[in-house]
Design goal:
Elements lengths: L2 E6 L4 H13 L3 E6 L1 H4 L12 E4 L4 H8 L4 E5 L6 H9 L2 E5 L6 H4 L8 E4 L5 H11 L2 E4 L19 E7 L9 H7 L8 E6 L13 H11 L5 E5 L14 E4 L8 H8 L4 E4 L13 E2 L2 E6 L5 E5 L2 H13 L2 H17 L2 H17 L2
Parallel strand pairs: 1-2, 1-4, 2-3, 4-5, 5-6, 6-7, 8-9, 8-11, 9-10, 11-12, 12-13
Antiparallel strand pairs: 14-15
Helix pairs in contact: 3-4, 7-8, 7-10, 9-11
Amino acid sequence: MKLGLIARMDNSGLGVQTHEFYKHMQPDKTMVVDISKYNGNKQYPERYPDGIFIKGFPTPADIDSFLEGLDVIFVAESPYNFYLYERARELGVKIAVQYNYEFFDWFANPHYPKPDLLIAPSKWHYNGVEGWCQDHNIKHTYLHNPVNRELLPRKEIKQARVFLHNAGRSASFDRNGTETVIDASKYIKTDAQIVIHFQGEQGLAHQTTSTIADYADRLEKQGDPNKVTLEQIEFKDYADVYSQGDVLLLPRRYGGNCLPLNEALSVGMPVIMTDISPNNEFLPTEWLLPAHRINQFTPRTTIDIYGSHPEHLADRIDQMYELPEDEFRQHTDTADRIAETISWGALKPKYQKVLEDICQKK
């Protein structure tokens, strides 16, 4: 099987996802797309010593050249030019796409060329996509996005003292629940401390707060500045994000694939999330927060947005803080066990098999 990859070389989620695929699956050819002109992200070309680098979006000529000699190509979310799917089908090259449901392009653009295999990184809205795949004779499977446990080994965490929130880069409608984390700080009764890590300053029109300055203002007005530290750091190595923190706070409002969840579990951090899909199909119930629907939006199809009460999050923080070492150890053991099931060691053979199988499909 001659494997190709469409990759990014930045510190976005897609950048991390595709670079880890590159390191572990060792594709025969890798097209590395640089769209920094549009998103301003710092690029790390050294991550792909044999990469085929494309400035901007790939042209038909770029794609024609890349397809030569390949049997199957792995794509994370976007091909950056749908001609890739069209030309690949003409040449008999298979396309496997690990999609993100909120950006499932065929819901909004049913005329777009289609891949041969769709890989769900979570069970979020899996059945809805399964029905679509059956209607279009496209293979569909669930394979969790693997985590690199060699880069993110379990660390020694004795008690819950520092609670990390990975705000990351701006996403529509406060996806990671940063506002909830800030608002919860004023209800915390213990000496727990929260560190909020931001990556980048870009804002989105859909958000009520979109820059670090906005979040700092919210903290002054609605939170407790003595409980929260705001940090903006562009780590070259994403694993460094987890050098601090004992528990990850991630009261996500929507979404399926969640790299910070996987990464925190790998280092042994319990992860407090909202009690919604896919979190409640994956995590212990004692880590989940009651949630209620607060809004909807339509990036490609209609997505429900959920919220959780800051008081509930503060209570969960205090409960974790007050656990003695032996009881908290049970939570870190649970994180470690879950992480092992989604490690590259556990999942690489499954990725290898589904890609090989799709190559045999006529």
